[in-house]
């Protein structure tokens, strides 16, 4: 008798539903008309996306995001990734850390690009209520801030933002910043677990929160939780 533990029909159907949701959310299916796909549109999604400028697209590489990085279930794996990122990129003057924070009332986000070795920190305010769009814009801010360097390593703690850059389509806020890029030097985006032990990431996080309007406080939950993949649900 086979005693293997199998997923229930309900679990398989739910995993399939989420997988389809993720597929339909992205280009070419998601083209500014959420009603066409029957999917809800909220502030965590883009109503419209734009193609990354060609000069960036040709130079851009997004490192693969590892699986099984749940903050609760895989804490040790997250710490190991932070240590590896620190070891490989931490002492490079080409490494930028990015983060964003949104006001508790929404509508305004503070974005930050931080380079600890060069001792450069660039912050800006953008009009958006979408955490994903704000994180994308923070990456774009780092790209245009470090374009005089021979290459760039950009570390972000937003899986959603990294995936959008990898897909080649970003929100309007990030796109407006990205069109200011005038170089062709290599750009690499690396995902790092947020709120762990990576010092550069913690510094960027602190700068972003400190850059919000004084009358406002940052949202309690940021960034947006990442929807698990089909295989992660069934594992």
UniProtKB/TrEMBL annotation:
Pfam families: RNase_H. GO terms for molecular function: nucleic acid binding; RNA-DNA hybrid ribonuclease activity. Residues 90-213 form the RNase H type-1 domain. This is RNase H type-1 domain-containing protein. It comes from Haemaphysalis longicornis. The lineage of its organism: Eukaryota, Metazoa, Ecdysozoa, Arthropoda, Chelicerata.
């Amino acid at each position: 008798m086979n005693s293997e533990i199998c997923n229930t029909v309900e679990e398989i159907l739910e995993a399939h539903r989420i997988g389809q949701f993720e597929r339909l959310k992205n280009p070419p299916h998601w083209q500014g008309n959420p009603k066409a796909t029957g999917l809800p549109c909220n502030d965590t999604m883009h109503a419209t996306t734009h193609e990354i400028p060609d000069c960036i697209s040709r130079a851009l590489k997004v490192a693969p995001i590892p699986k099984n990085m749940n903050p609760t279930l895989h804490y040790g794996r997250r710490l190991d990734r932070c240590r590896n990122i620190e070891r490989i990129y931490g002492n490079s003057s080409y490494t930028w850390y990015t983060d964003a924070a949104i006001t508790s009332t929404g509508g305004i986000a503070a974005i930050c690009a931080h380079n600890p070795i060069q001792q450069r920190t660039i912050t800006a305010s953008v009009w958006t209520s979408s955490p994903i769009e704000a994180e994308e814009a923070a990456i774009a801010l780092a790209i245009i801030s470090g374009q005089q360097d021979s290459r760039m390593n950009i570390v972000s703690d937003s899986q959603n933002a990294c995936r959008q850059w990898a897909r080649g389509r970003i929100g309007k806020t990030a796109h407006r910043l990205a069109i200011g890029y005038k170089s062709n030097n290599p750009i690499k985006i690396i995902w790092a677990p947020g709120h762990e032990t990576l010092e550069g990431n913690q510094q960027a996080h602190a700068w972003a929160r400190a850059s919000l309007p004084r009358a406002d406080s940052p949202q309690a939950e940021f960034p947006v939780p990442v929807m698990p993949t089909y295989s992660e649900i069934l594992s």
